[in-house]
Amino acid sequence: MTSSTPAPSAPVSAGAAGLPKQPNRPGAADSTPLVVILAGGLSHERDVSLRSGRRVAEALRSTGLEVVLHDVDADLLAFLRKTRPDVVWPLLHGSSGEDGSVRDVLDMLGLPYVGTGPRASRTVWNKPISKTALLDAGLSTPDYVTLPQSLFRDLGAQPVLDTVVRRLGLPLVVKPTEGGSALGVTVVTRAEDLPRAMVECFAYGETALIEQAVIGTELAVSVIEGPGGPEALPAVEIVADGSYDYAARYVAGETEFFAPARLTPDQATLVSDVAVRAHQALHLRHLSRTDLILDASGTAQILEVSVAPGMTEMSVLPQAIAASGRDLAALYRKIVDTTLALAP
């Protein structure tokens, strides 16, 4: 399942989105809920966020909601205080969007928002901490070590890397402990390539997560909360020509997706159960996406979990919704309605 190449994005702002002069509020003559979508920001994943924001805004507008796109900028707080939107949907990827900080601000403003709260977001944002929580819940994740850049300066890079290879073996995956969209991620099959992988990783953060590379079927399982609790959507199988890196995720034609994944019924049930358990173990809310590999032994090895899944034309969550037979816009509207219903 693939899509056409996306059009170049431009910065999103409240003005560019066409702010209503008098936003409709509950209790007014027209009580259409106002949804503010936060998209953009200054992280490395800004472009992905903008694309996600535009697509969700278009879908929600088609259901009759009033929707405003706003960047994370110096005007945001004043705008939120003035308009008091009914729901805020943070579609921010990378730092601030997924580390809980923007969600902390929304809590301080007393605004309902879609997605996980700040404390659980911080747990998920830090991959080693989230791995610990997953292991404590009895779930599987590749063996790993976490090493800050300062350690290499103190002990010498090569002795540390030699120790890593002896401990974890090859192949390895090197990634920043914080971040998404596979930025700074390298699959290492030869020990002599490990130093370069570390340099690329440290370009995106001060601490590296080095884990055993798992061979198997790469899957993404999205979870949506409904009246009966969290529910896994059909798994999406990812077949990349090489590593599932940034280009493979967002450039059309680089990756083949199978939605639903080519799994047996038992395998599909297993990975769905693992994604729901991860969602619950990490105390997530409304929606999440679990990336995992189903290895040759039949174990679902969790790579990472996202509290802000991408919503672009190539993102796996929209593909999973389509595979479930549900209407994309209607499901997004249901998420907003659920957030409104649970708002204090």
Automatic annotation (TrEMBL):
**Its Gene Ontology molecular function terms?**
D-alanine-D-alanine ligase activity
Extract the NCBIfam families matched here.
PRK01372.1
List where Low complexity composition bias occurs.
Answer: 1-20
Q: In which pathway does it act?
A: Cell wall biogenesis; peptidoglycan biosynthesis
Q: Which residues form the ATP-grasp domain?
A: 131-337
Per its database record, what is this protein's job?
Cell wall formation.
Does Cell wall biogenesis/degradation show up as a keyword for this record? Answer: yes
What is stated as this protein's family in its record? Belongs to the D-alanine--D-alanine ligase family.
Per the UniProt entry, the Enzyme Commission number(s) are: 6.3.2.4
Q: Which reaction does it catalyse?
A: 2 D-alanine + ATP = D-alanyl-D-alanine + ADP + phosphate + H(+)
**Uppermost EC category:** ligase
Keyword Repeat among record annotations: no
Where can this protein be found? Cytoplasm
Q: Which InterPro entries match?
A: ATP-grasp, ATP_grasp_subdomain_1, D_ala_D_ala, Dala_Dala_lig_C, Dala_Dala_lig_N, PreATP-grasp_dom_sf
Keywords annotated in UniProt:
ATP-binding, Cell shape, Cell wall biogenesis/degradation, Cytoplasm, Ligase, Nucleotide-binding, Peptidoglycan synthesis
What name does this protein carry? D-alanine--D-alanine ligase
* SUPFAM superfamilies attached to this UniProt entry: Glutathione synthetase ATP-binding domain-like (SSF56059), PreATP-grasp domain (SSF52440)
Q: What is its main location?
A: cytoplasm
Region Disordered: start-end pairs: 1-30
Could you tell me which Pfam families the record lists for this protein? Dala_Dala_lig_C (PF07478), Dala_Dala_lig_N (PF01820)
